[in-house]
């Protein structure tokens, strides 16, 4: 995309894709593409964030997001530190703001936070001076996941404009779904969602998604089919009768995929319940880009850290 010559990335925090413009998203994806090559060098390190201090503050489990933020920061020579809920003084009753103020007293440049409460990164951004990156807040947003998903689709399809993106599953509890609906819609794609009625939140159309009554309708002629994890930990009462029934009605199978475009790609943000949300043969097959999503996660997170801490504001 041609950038206006006066374009400047001006964000101190990355709290959600709702705050980013199309130009911002394009610029982040371009920057991430330029960083991708660093991860294939024999010496995977550049000095551009030398002297910067980055704290990973994760109150929920994570494999991909936490590690890829840490790898991204280290590949740019920043100093990184990890705190998890089980090892922090939150266990002793310290409030989130008090924890953040104490971290602030040690002069970090950025805090990356994952928390079960929607809006917790926004709360931190109001109270402390460091840049805040939202690594997933409750049901709300997971902006770096949305960006790496857009990067992955753009690599395969060349553009996001006009694509049909089908997102299937637990839309209600999925911050990934929310960021992807916002991001892909902003970039000119058409997002269709489907899943059990108990997992489709009212008002989701307002984010830009079209709600389909059947999975078949969502997947028909899709360029991208994205399965979501069933978020059992966020369901107070069981909202699906059983895994087996979910798999047979809403799991992505070869039969269902026949309705999509012949070159449709399959995505899943992970972690995956194998055989429930997605047929394992599809997850491991040639149309799956699930591990490309993980690889792109490092490049996107390098771009975010660079842009908020060291790059062109
Ligand atoms: N996609 C994602 O957020 O994965 P993790 O929970 O492993 O970070």
Keywords:
313 residues, Rossmann fold, 2 domains, five-stranded parallel sheet, four-stranded parallel sheet, binds phosphoric acid mono(formamide)ester
List the helices and strands and how they pair.
Elements: H1 22-36, E1 53-58, H2 64-75, E2 79-84, H3 96-104, E3 110-115, H4 120-127, E4 131-137, H5 143-157, E5 164-168, H6 175-186, E6 190-194, E7 209-211, H7 215-219, E8 224-227, H8 243-250, H9 254-257, E9 265-267, H10 280-283, H11 290-309
Parallel strand pairs: 1-2, 1-3, 3-4, 5-6, 5-8, 6-7, 8-9
User: Beta fraction of the residues?
Assistant: 5-15%
Helix/strand-derived category reads alpha/beta
Number of helices: 11
Mean pLDDT: 94
């Amino acid at each position: 995309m041609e950038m206006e010559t006066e374009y400047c990335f001006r964000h101190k925090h990355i709290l959600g894709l709702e705050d980013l413009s199309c130009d911002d998203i394009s610029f982040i994806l371009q920057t991430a593409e330029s960083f991708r090559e660093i991860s294939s060098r024999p010496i995977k390190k550049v000095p551009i964030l030398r002297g910067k201090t980055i704290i990973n503050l994760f109150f929920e489990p994570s494999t991909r997001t936490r590690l890829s933020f840490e790898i991204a920061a280290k590949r740019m020579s920043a100093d990184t530190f990890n705190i998890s809920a089980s090892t922090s003084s939150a266990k002793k009753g310290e409030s989130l703001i008090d924890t953040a103020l104490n971290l602030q007293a040690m002069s970090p440049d950025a805090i990356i936070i994952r928390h079960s409460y929607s809006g917790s990164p926004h709360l931190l951004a109001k109270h402390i001076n460091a840049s805040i990156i939202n690594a997933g807040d409750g049901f709300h947003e997971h902006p770096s996941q949305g960006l790496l998903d857009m990067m992955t689709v753009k690599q395969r399809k060349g553009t996001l404009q006009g694509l049909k993106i089908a997102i299937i599953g637990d839309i209600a509890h999925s911050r990934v779904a929310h960021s992807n609906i916002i991001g892909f819609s902003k970039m000119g794609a058409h997002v269709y969602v489907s899943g059990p009625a108990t997992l489709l939140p009212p008002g989701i159309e307002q984010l830009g998604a079209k709600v389909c009554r059947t999975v078949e309708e969502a997947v028909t002629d899709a360029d991208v089919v994205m399965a979501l994890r069933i978020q059992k930990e966020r369901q107070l009462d069981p909202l699906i009768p059983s895994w087996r029934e979910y798999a047979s009605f809403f799991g992505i199978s070869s039969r269902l995929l026949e309705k999509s475009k012949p070159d449709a790609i399959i995505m899943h943000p992970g972690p995956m319940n194998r055989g429930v949300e997605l047929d394992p043969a599809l997850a491991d097959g040639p149309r799956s880009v699930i591990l490309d999503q993980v690889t792109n996660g490092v490049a996107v997170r390098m771009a975010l850290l660079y842009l908020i801490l060291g790059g062109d504001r």
